[in-house]
Amino acid sequence: MAVVFEKTKGLTDVPFHYCPGCSHGIVHRLVAEVLEEMNLLGDAVGVASVGCSVFSYNYFDCDMVQAPHGRAPAVATGIKRSFPDDIVFTYQGDGDLAAIGTAETVHAATRGENITVIFINNAIYGMTGGQMAPTSLPGQVTQTTPYGRDVKIAGYPVRVCEMLSTLSGTALAQRVAVNNVKNVRDAKKAIRKGFENQINKRGYSIIEVVSACPTNWGLSPLDANKWLEENMLSYYPLGVYKDVTADSGEVK
Amino acid sequence: MATMNVLLAGFGGQGILFSGKLLVYSGLLDGKEVSWLPSYGPEMRGGTCNCSVVISDDAIGSPLVTAPDVLIAMNLPSLDKFENAVVPGGTIILDSSLIDRKVTRTDVNVHYVDASKLAEENGMKGSANIIIIGKMFKELGFCTEENLFKAVEKCVPPKKAALIDVNKNALRLGFTV
Amino acid sequence: MAEKVLMKGNEALAEAAIQAGCRHFFGYPITPQTEISAYLSKRMPKVGGLFLQAESEVAAINMVLGAASTGVRAMTSSSSPGISLKSEGVSYIAGSDLPCLIINVQRGGPGLGGIQPSQSDYWQATKALGHGDFQLFVLAPSTIQEMVDFVPLAFDKAEQYRMPAMILSDGMLGQMMEPVTLPDPEKPFDREANIASKPWATNGTKGKRKKNIVNSLYIQPDELEKLVVERFERYEIIKKNEQRAESYLTEDADVVVVAFGASSRVSRSAVNAARAEGIKAGLIRPITLWPFPENAIEAVVPTAKVFLDVEMNMGQMIEDVKLVVNGRKPVEFFGRTGGIIPTPAEILAQIKRLAKEGK
């Protein structure tokens, strides 16, 4: 009998702990599929960061290292500089990448560290139960902004791809989403490009995935997708912010 | 000589650390125990600079010289600061081109060397520190002459090999003053 | 045997790291350790190694974590305030059972403190370099030769016991020059074999083995307890097998000075001066600060009349000395802090006072 579908070999059999409607599941699968399709699982070393996705070290079927909060780019740097032919990726959330780990992120990018970064931006801290993230939207209600994010007090959200696209070491800064089939396909292409860049030693590639966190947003999975489309995509427009392989060198 | 504690002090750029290195290398070549400890920190950036050197027959405890047997002072602040620290019967050698006062203590041996002026006059500008080491050697003979000259070769980096002869000549000039 | 050369402690240690097979150094400038970075930035490219100046001490220690996870000999160095910043990463490294080498060229504290030599990070190094139940293997050199010799030793022990090792130096040892014999370059370290000896390393499965995970997270308390208890069983073996100390003139000593690192050098001069005056003084110099050399101290408790703990801090190691002596003999303290190196005369005065009181 012909096999028409099977789970990617890039994932182990350990069941995900993620909530219904959480984007992590889809993004894990996309990353794992790309690694398998590109025949990179034997060379891959992933770096799990602190947050909901910390247990990704149990899910990806390749060597995995768990980093302290925010330090995944530094840990990945240590791995990549020791084994430059390995394929090193980090999988980071918004608190990890854009708050506590901003320095590590900016400097890994500006060094042109030849790694691939998967960035889950769901505008909230998931693992600790729904506090304000550096990417929480103005007015967004979270556990620590119970009256809505007041930019006079808490400042403005960080637009990571825009910021990193200004750095010379960044090879790819692309924002994608996994809220519909087309976007999932585009996201996978972007992830593939991120790993191709690493093979071609082009530097730091970041794929930001605008993601849903239904549990901490207090919404059903469907409503969460809708909230994402209506609120997040206007603040975080999808697209390519920097791509050194683009003929035009287009910077959006 | 069981142990000789030397304190060299002056401005940054006068070659204080280099003179100290010359002393420890000559001690090392003589088979002695030696240590060299520079002052470090903001003061080395253009300010005063000093360096502790110990040459001993025995293992060296503290490399920090607080009561020098020999003080080499290359500027007035250094003399002001360390004159009273010298042990009774010790030696002070100073660059009298740059220090216009006399040593007030009477229980130490003092040698005034017009080192900066001599260096200038003899076309070895910047070697006042080495002339003073030559003088110190003549007065105290802390190692063999052969090893003193060998130490010059050890201390001058290969890139600046041309300076080996300049330094040796400065030492010889120091012997004569 | 190789010729003796004059080198600064920091530079000699850095060269020893190259000879010990370290090719991955991650640092951040801070006085008085900066020569280690400066030296390795020159040397590493010439031996195919990596010197990387990180954006912070925090990043540097985490780069060490990443590099160590692949099985290479990785190292970082800093001075006291920078070591505090590294404490997070050190805890994760210990929790992940990774070997690495951390150098602390101590300066005065707390806070920004000063830049002159100090030993006030004894507690930090031996008790609390980060959160959680863990220890570092801590070596305290007292000469430039030991700054060199302890580098391969620290790497070896770190790898043998899968734990971070620290060389606890200070600004005096880092900045001073004295004669030193460097390791024999004729016996190069086999880095390939060293990496191959680490089956736990995360450097890519190459399809030849199951995936490895390097992590410190164990969400089930019973699982975490089991791992921590296992780690402490290992620590017991280390305590039994790895204590190192030097005992100098202690056999008949009435006054036994206990001092490590820089202060032990000065103490030795004071002990010699005391002997010259007919006072039976001796010195125990802990070389491993963890494991603390309990045996060396225990050995002289029956014969010593009094212990004098000498440190360049307000009295930190003295607590470990007192734990061993356990009230059987008095343990007195003399220390200077803030970046002051005690003089032999100061220590001699204390020895003389205790010898007199003891009569």
Question: How would you sum up this structure, described in words?
Answer:
The complex is a heterotrimer of chains A (252), B (177) and C (359). With 252 residues, chain A is an alpha/beta fold. Chain A has a single domain, classed as Thiamin diphosphate (ThDP)-binding fold, Pyr/PP domains (Rossmann fold). Chain A has ten helices and seven strands. Chain A has a seven-stranded mixed β-sheet, sandwiched between helices. The mean pLDDT of chain A is 96. Chain B has one domain: Pyruvate-ferredoxin oxidoreductase, PFOR, domain III (Pyruvate-ferredoxin Oxidoreductase, domain 3), CATH 3.40.920.10. Helices cover 37% and strands 21% of the residues of chain B. Chain B has a six-stranded mixed β-sheet, with helices on both faces. Chain C contains 13 helices and 15 strands. With 359 residues, chain C is of the alpha/beta class. Chain C starts with a strand and ends with a helix. Chain C has two domains: 4-196, Thiamin diphosphate (ThDP)-binding fold, Pyr/PP domains (Rossmann fold), CATH 3.40.50.970; 247-358, Rossmann fold. Chains in contact: A-C, B-C. Chain A binds chain C through residues 12, 41-45, 47-48, 54-55, 57-58, 60-68, 71, 73-83, 86-87, 103-104, 106-107, and chain C through 24, 26, 50, 52, 54-56, 58-60, 62-72, 74, 88-89, 92, 96, 202-208, 211-217.
CATH-defined fold name of chain B: Pyruvate-ferredoxin Oxidoreductase, domain 3
Q: What does the radius of gyration of chain B come to?
A: 15 Å
- Global outline of chain A: globular
Low-confidence stretches of chain A: none
The whole-number mean of residue pLDDT values of chain B reads 93
The succession of helices and strands of chain B, N to C, reads EHEEEHEEHHHH
Instruction: Work out the number of β strands of chain B.
Output: 6
